[in-house]
Structure formats: C-alpha cells, structure tokens
Fold:
Amino acid sequence: MQTRIIDGTGLARRVREEWRERAQALAGRGCRPGLAVVIVGDDPASRAYVRNKIRACAELGLHSEQVELPAEASEAELLARIAALNADPAIHGILVQLPLPKHIAAERVILAIAPEKDVDGFHPLNVGLLATGHPRFAPCTPAGVMLMLEREGIDPWAKHAVIVGASNIVGKPMALLLLSRGATVTLCNSKTRDLAAHTRAADILVAAVGRPKLVTGDMVKPGAVVIDVGINRLADGKLVGDVDTAAVMGVASHVTPVPGGVGPMTVTMLVVNTVLAAERACEAGRPKEPAT
Ligand code: NAP
Structure:
C-alpha cells in the first residue's frame, strides 16, 4: 500500500490564507481580532511555542500582545493580569502558555479566563459545551486534526477511532470531536492492557502520549489513518513523534509527519479561534437594526 504523508505545513498555510480574509473583513469593520499570550517564566520550549503563535497572528494581520511574567510571579499577579485582559476590548482571545510554575494552580488560572475569550478551549464551560455537542472553542490540537481529516477527505462516520493518550488538552477533546462526527471511539491511557490489540482495531489511530516509537508498524491495521500528535526531542536534538513513521510506511493509508504534521495545524487553529472570538464579540457589540 502506498502511504500518503499528510502535509500539515502546506495545509496550515492554506487555512491561514483563508482566515486572513475573514480577519481583514473584521478589521475593516473596526473589529481587528486580538490575541494575548501570557507566559510565566522562561522555559525555552514554551518561549518557542509563544513565538510561533505571535508570528501566526502577524501573518494574518491580527493584533497580538505578549504578556511576560517572571517565574516567581504570584498566582494573584497572574490572575490580576488575566482580569485586565478579560476587560480589554482590543483582546478577543487569551491564552496562558502551559505548563505554569508549580506554585500556580493551572485550574484556577484557566477558570479565571472569560469563557468567550478562552481560545484554547480549556475553560470547564467550554469543555462542557464540547462534551454536550455544542462546541464554542474546540481545543486547538484536536480541532487541527479534525480539519486535517476533513481536508484529506477522511470521514470519521462509523469508523473506529482509537486514541492513545487521554489528556485534557489532546486525548479527551479528540475523543469528543471524533464521537461528534459519528466515530466509535476507544480512548487508551497508561493503564490500558494490551494496547496493540486496541490500536490494531483502529481505522483512525491518534497517538498523543509523548513517547518516541510507541506505535510500531505491527500495531497498525493495514489501510489505517495514523495521526501522530506526539512531539519528542531526542538526545541528538532531533524532533520525532510517537509513531515509528518508517515502520508504518506501506501499512497505513495516511500518516502525519513530525515535524510538519499536526504542530502547524495547532497554531493555525489558535488564530482561527481568535478570529471566531472576534467575530462573535463584534456581532454582539453591533447596534441592532431598528424594527420596522
Ligand atoms: P500528557 O498530559 O502527558 O498525557 C499523556 C497521556 O498519555 C496520558 O493520558 C497518559 O495516560 C497516556 N500514556 C502515557 N504512557 C502511555 C502508554 N504507555 N500507553 C498508553 N497511554 C499512555 O501529554 P499531552 O499534553 O496530551 O501531550 C501528548 C504528546 O503530544 C506530547 O508529546 C506533547 O508534546 C504532544 N503535543 C503536541 C501538540 C501538537 O501541536 N503537535 C500539542 C499538544 C501536545 P494516563 O492518563 O494514564 O497518565
């Protein structure tokens, strides 16, 4: 079987181009979308992610602000900055880069973000809306995977989707999104017995664990779509996913590469969610047409 490598970089570029027009249309109506990215401390990986997000905003002509706090900043200081961003009409999306230093409770910080500005989709209200089938903001990584599947013509309807990894930011929302598109979903975690028996049953296999080569060739059903969400840096500095990509070539029908697969789609969905947030805020703030 010929395995198609899904070009996440190219797809992300096309999607950003489409959304640039929507962002420009909003700006023309006096509603330029704005994103605030809050970073606490100076973790190099977090800084690189934040740089990418700010760059993507610039590409689409969005307003962006980077709010930097030192690693020793208190939770109260961070909450005060979020309160100010919640009240700022130039800001439609707020993202707090995770992980946060240990002395700050991420749950309290996420809860403090106004749900209508929660472009990461992590606020419990947005999680609940997603779980009940009325998503307002779907978390960026699984939303990016769904768009990838759609653009590749892969319909999850009545397929068996197996997700390895059940985190709040990737695995669980991925399961909800696939379920909402008619897939039968199996969600695996570190306690799952005989992982390979589950993965071999997958028509769509999503790996989101953070362990290089966790998914080997013999764990994939011939013809399956394999989505590699993992990002792992090896000792030699090389970036790899969770899937042994070379081993699934010729077995899977599709596979996403790392880098250049899901990663660029994640950043793209963040700007998409920010434009959506601005569209809704702009619509809500527009004077209503007088009744005739
Ligand atoms: P996480 O919070 O550490 O969660 C990992 C999940 O994997 C947990 O549910 C854990 O199970 C499960 N797990 C661990 N070992 C396992 C095993 N041997 N078999 C089956 N499941 C196992 O990680 P995350 O934040 O979801 O991130 C996962 C990976 O995706 C990381 O490499 C991260 O860098 C990457 N990532 C990529 C993007 C992107 O844009 N491409 C975005 C976000 C994350 P338990 O629940 O039992 O602990």
In short: DSSP finds ten helices and eleven strands in the chain. Residues 262-285 form the longest helix (24 residues).
